[in-house]
Write a structure and sequence with these properties.
- Helix content is 0%, strand content 38%.
- With 66 residues, it is mainly β.
- It has a 5-stranded antiparallel β-sheet, with no helix packed on it.
- The termini are close together.
Length: 66
Amino acid sequence: MKVGDLVRLRDVYNLGAIDHAIGIILAERDPVAKQVKLVRIGVLWNDGDTVDWEPAHWLEVVSESR
């Protein structure tokens, strides 16, 4: 996953909170958190207005940026 990729939540983690939302990766790692075990990716969701820091293993790439 890299900046510009379109992503969605993997089905196993989509518990109805976000129904079929698509997001774009804006940052590959949270610059503030010390990410040793849980890497978080900055995603701007199509139904949101702020960057959410999602665990990388929750996401799947829908379309890769060039």
